[in-house]
Design a protein that fits this description.
The structure is a single chain. This protein starts with a strand and ends in a 17-residue tail after the last strand. It contains four helices and seven strands; from the N terminus they run E-H-H-E-E-E-H-E-H-E-E. It has a seven-stranded mixed β-sheet, with helices on both faces. It is of the alpha+beta class and about 190 residues long. Strand 6 and strand 7 form a beta hairpin. It is globular, with a radius of gyration of 18 Å. Helix 1 packs across helix 2. The chain has a domain of about 120 residues: 3-Layer(aba) Sandwich (Aminopeptidase), CATH 3.40.630.
């Protein structure tokens, strides 16, 4: 049994503050999660306020990992995709506090996100991670397949470019409801 629990987060000042703390810490230590160092508390809070509001609307699920009452990790499952992609979801913003790394937190978060995608009948998951210091090993252990690498994709938090690795994983057989057939006109 893991010493932490995983649960979806909703908009609240406490959730936003705890998520902002994690984001600032991860960026300060070189985590490539779309932000540059130094990351201001205002910028981190704006990001999480927007993200949690999107979760409240059902467009995404922001999961939190807790050690007792302390938020120690997070991952987001993006669900609000274009109309021609109702069968897939994206994994984003996988982060674990430095104090809790290598203790199974990211594994538990990823497992929970996958189950939530399956529960919502998503058949394909995609994600990206930085070439340098990314979590490719975790994703590959989970069965994600490398689609390719884009060089010089983003700036690292402390400067310099890094590539990104694009991954995919099929969760279930494609749902027949999502596949449209087109009949030929009769002659």
């Amino acid at each position: 049994m893991t010493p932490f629990r995983i649960e979806p987060l909703a908009s609240s000042a406490a959730a936003c503050a705890a998520l902002s703390d994690i984001l600032i810490e991860v960026v300060a230590h070189g985590g490539s999660v779309s932000f540059m160092h130094p990351l201001s508390r205002d910028a981190a809070s704006r990001f999480w306020e927007t993200s949690l509001a999107s979760a409240d609307r059902g467009e995404r699920i922001v999961l939190g990992a807790f050690d007792r009452d302390h938020l120690i990790g997070t991952v987001t499952l993006l669900l609000d995709l274009p109309p021609n992609q109702p069968h897939r979801a994206e994994i984003a913003k996988m982060m674990t506090r430095l104090s809790h790394r290598h203790r199974g937190v990211a594994t538990a978060l990823l497992r929970a996100a996958e189950q939530l995608a399956i529960d919502r009948e998503r058949t394909l998951l995609v994600l990206d991670t930085a070439v340098e210091d990314g979590a490719s090993g975790l994703y590959e252990r989970f069965g994600f397949q490398l689609a390719g690498i884009i060089p010089d994709y983003a700036l690292k938090p402390h400067g310099g470019l890094t590539g990104t690795m694009i991954y995919w994983k099929r969760l279930l057989a494609p749902a027949s409801c999502c596949i449209m057939s087109r009949s030929l006109p009769s002659s």
